[in-house]
Write a structure and sequence with these properties.
Blueprint lengths: L2 E6 L2 H13 L8 E5 L15 H10 L6 E5 L2 H13 L6 E4 L3 H13 L4 H9 L3 H6 L24 E6 L8 H8 L10 E4 L5 E3 L3 H6 L7 E6 L4 H13 L26 E4 L2 E8 L15 H27 L3 H13 L3 H14 L3 H19 L1 H4 L2 H16 L13 E5 L4 H5 L6 E6 L7 H9 L3 E3 L12 E5 L4 E4 L3 H9 L19 E6 L2 H9 L4 E6 L1 H4 L8 H12 L6 E5 L34 H17 L3 E6 L5 H13 L4 E6 L2 H5 L1 H6 L3 E4 L1 H9 L17 H17 L3 E3 L7 H9 L4 E4 L4 H8 L4 H12 L4 H11 L3
Parallel strand pairs: 1-2, 1-3, 3-4, 10-11, 11-12, 12-13, 16-17, 16-23, 17-18, 18-19, 19-20, 20-21, 21-22, 22-23
Antiparallel strand pairs: 5-8, 6-7, 6-8, 9-13, 10-14, 14-15
Helix pairs in contact: 1-4, 2-3, 4-5, 7-11, 10-11, 10-12, 10-15, 11-17, 12-13, 13-15, 19-21, 21-22, 28-29, 28-30, 30-31
Bound molecules: phosphoenolpyruvate and magnesium ion.
Amino acid sequence: MIGIVVVSHSAKLAEAAVSLALAMVPSGHPRVLVAAGAGVERDGSAIIGTDATVVAAAIDELSDTDGVLVLMDLGSAVLSAELALEFVTATVPVTLSAAPFVEGLLAATVRAAGGASLAEVAAEAESALTAKRGQLAPAEPVSAAGQPAAGPAAPAAPRRARRLVLRNRLGLHARPAALLASENGVGAAEVQVRLERTGAVASAVSPTALMGLGSRGGDAVEVSAAGSQADEVLDRIEALVESGFGELDEPASPSAAPAPTGRELAQPIGVSPGRAAGPVVHLAPALDAPVEAPALPSDQRALAAERLEGAASTVSTRLAERAESSEGAARDILAATALMATDPGLIDAATAAVRDRGTEPARAVWDAAGALIDLLAGVGGRTAERVADVRDVRDRIVAELSGRSVPGVPERAEPFVLIARDLAPADTATLDPASCVALVTEEGGPTSHTAIIARSLGIPAVVAARGALAIAEGTTVLVDGETGRVTVDPSAAELAALAMAPDVSAFTGHGATADGHPVALMANVGSGEEAQAAARGGAEGIGLLRTEFLFLGRAEAPSVDEQVAAYRGVMAAFPGRKVVVRTLDAGADKPLPFVTLEGEENPALGVRGLRTARRHPDILDAQLTAIAEAAAAETARVQVMAPMVATVEEAAAFVELCHRKGIATAGVMIETPAAAVSAPELLAAVDFASLGTNDLTQYTMAADRVVGELAELNDPWQPAVLRLIGTVGAAGATTRTPVGVCGEAGADPLLAVVLVGLGVSSLSMAVRALPRVAQRLGTVTLDECRRAAEEAVAASSPAEARARARAALGG
Ligand code: PEP
Ligand code: MG
């Protein structure tokens, strides 16, 4: 007689189904074992889930039967059952059945009790819905487009399918693939992606499989999902695809470098501006391929495979931790690499080699990565640029397995120019701009991680510099990250010219125009660590503390005590200096489940920023209490401002509330045209104002700031925006109210000059932008700023505004 294993997320569900099935065959029934749950919590309660090792143990227990039929409930039960086959030691034949869980179990139990073979029992289970279908009117599953879904012949769980067009320029490359794979419910709904152009299909749980599709912007894909959550999962995926995976406003690729000459390297591309010279240091060499050892004995294979999985997960955890402590692009890239370290496309292939062929774990990882590298390289284009990521993950896992040190950027006290074939994301993410003054790689392109991270770190970088590795360590090179020129052994005159160039790598900590008009240059930060970095970078204070960092990813607001501790951490980095704390700016692009409304028709125009206090005055109250308490405990000169203010009444009420809380200096952000137009009255009601030019631009131009297609409208150089800023600047002068800028506009050196000319007295920006802005301001007088502003405001387009401002400053 055959045996049956029932794999379920819930032991209760499985046991009930089994007892129902066995009740059909009171005597002589088959052995039916339950493999359910995923262990127990500390309090002894069962964890809902499935566990491949439990499934394998159940199959092994039925090794004396004539065959084992495995029935599964939802998506990950299927994955566990498939994985279990790798662990099974019994030689009994096993069939994984796609039959419906309850009906299939009943049918199989009855048929097995009659002594049927495994194939017969399996067939019976598969057709278990026939009776039910006959009784009910047939209801064809319908796809979102209203067309009948092309489902399998006898679908146990009908698949829903949607045709979507990839909107981001580069399709499912590493980051979008990782985002898609980690979308909630993708595994459970067994989401598959089919590229229409080639017909290739990939499971959405595997980023590498998705990348292997070789998709690009404009490609149509069919995304299908199964199970009761299929529609919800597809909705989320559709939104992700529609948003272009957040890449619709990718900067255009820098243009190729001019033709190389003389001692310059061939075909290089400058990808991160700036010029620097220094002695060459090569990246520590990659690991050699592990030697092919004799096959492991079969009783050691399971343990070896576990060791491999353990090493992969350690590498993944470490990378994820580094992602946590990084910022911006580095954070995203490290997180995506962490995901790749446990990607089934890589790790499953490696563990299968260990289990099936007894391959040594390090060698198995090496070979599996090799296959993946060939696949990605074969796809070409942007996908091929991800080869460096796979090599990086491979080396890290192999190093972990063999106890060797990880190859990477050598640590040097003296400044150097790093040369490498290509940099792995994890290497670039940990580069210290203080020691690594420039980067040159033989491979990579403008969109490679090296380029992205170098830009975010402000390190001049040149990629695709073929032959660079031939430059010996210690040789001096001059790197121009704008033109892509790499000059080997530059002349004394070239080095002298570099030394004479204005130093834009550091900020002295004092912003002013050439004629001494002070312009406080401060930093935008979102945490205590960022505040410390800002202090190290010379920022004169914090012009914008985005407090969302404390609230995001939580189910409820942090306690007052927790907030006090966090704010003190920021304030402590600037003793005696200005720290402007912005109250919670939830809503629109920063939704918070316990604050913002779900399903707002138009969240950017909805209950966001200060408006959330209408529904949750308690959250604002607690936050102001915490800020006041933190300010009292530190010496920083703390000011508080509210985001998304539209009326004079809102501004006045906020300021009054702050004053009541003991916060002496309170103001508002000018982010709406209404606030800007009302500036004369509004500024009279506050202690200071700060222009949030990101939002002010999107609301003035009625162009969503996250829609890349509208990028040319979302430009703070738009004369309409400049005119509003001018209104606020003028009102600041007449009411003697300080007006600052804390949007991205302040980080544009030329625009910074115009803003000062429009009456802005302080600029706050990402700390890395400070040196260039300070340098530019130091070359112009206040009068010149005003002339540039007059010209820009009189222009009829952003391009004309830039050109006229530049011309006013002498070109
Ligand atoms: C702005 O809108 O310019 C601003 C600084 O706020 P945020 O970018 O956080 O919305
Ligand atoms: Mg804003």
